[in-house]
Amino acid sequence: MILSDAMLLAYLDEALSAEKMAAIEQSIRSDSQLRKRIELLVSQRDSGMHSLGDIWRRHRLSCPSREQLGSYLLGAMLDDASDYIEFHIETIGCRYCQANLADLRIAQEHAKVAEPIAAERRKRIFNSSVGRIQSYPGDE
Ligand SMILES: [Zn+2]
Does residue 21 share a domain with residue 9? Predict the structure, then answer.
């Protein structure tokens, strides 16, 4: 597993998914190089010399909005924005956004199934009322 500094900083902040946390922990145990890198990152971060902590913090602060996640799901997004969300969710593994996205996915699946049924119902109501009523003020 190739770990970027941003990933390791996210690990240090315990901001990754449980799965990723466990995988990185495993690597750290068996890899002394990695342990050295982490020690370095921690000291750099604590002394405020490093910008990577800032990068990570910026990433975490810039969680996409629910609307943006919705557009992402629909594929209705510019590539750059879509790439960022993918990085945020897949690489950083932001748990908050993962939960939000899962929730939106269910809502969209539900809408996909419900919409044709609703359209059919509207058509039936319309057809059955056209024969009897000319028009009704306030009707759609
Ligand atoms: Zn997020």
Answer: yes
